[in-house]
Amino acid sequence: MNTIYETIVTKIGAKAQDFYSEKIVILFGDNVPDELIEYCVLHNNNIDKAHIDYKNIEVGDILKINEEKFKITAVGELVNINLKNLGHITIKFDGSTIAELPGTLHVENKNIPIINVGDAIVIVRE
């Protein structure tokens, strides 16, 4: 199993969970614009670890929030660029096989887990 991306949640905006009913989590690195903070799950964007093999995220990779796994079903054309540069993507837990928007990462249709400060968000290739 290769780790492609790994980060740690540093803050959760007051309104971030408002999007859960739409099966959406908005990730943003700690460089988030002030006007977006309350809507995002903030993280330290790319923990620099030697074991990470930074490759583009692909359909079939696995998103892990702590140890809960979600198969990636679609990758918007800007997901890899935005995640690398800004730490910003939208994760949609709807199982769609076609990316709705360029910055959206779709994963299998499962309930969004409770996300807390200190939680790991990891993408792996099995």
TrEMBL record:
Residues the record lists as Phosphohistidine modifications: 43
GO biological process, alphabetically ordered: phosphoenolpyruvate-dependent sugar phosphotransferase system
EC primary class: transferase
Entry EC no(s): 2.7.1.191
Entry keyword set: Transferase
InterPro entries named among the record's database cross-references: PTS_IIA_glucitol/sorbitol-sp, PTS_IIA_glucitol/sorbitol_sf
Superkingdom of origin organism: Bacteria
Record-level GO cellular component terms: cytoplasm
GO molecular function annotations of the record: kinase activity; protein-N(PI)-phosphohistidine-sugar phosphotransferase activity
PANTHER family tied to this protein: PTS SYSTEM GLUCITOL/SORBITOL-SPECIFIC EIIA COMPONENT, PTS SYSTEM GLUCITOL_SORBITOL-SPECIFIC EIIA COMPONENT
Name of this protein: Phosphotransferase system sorbitol-specific component IIA
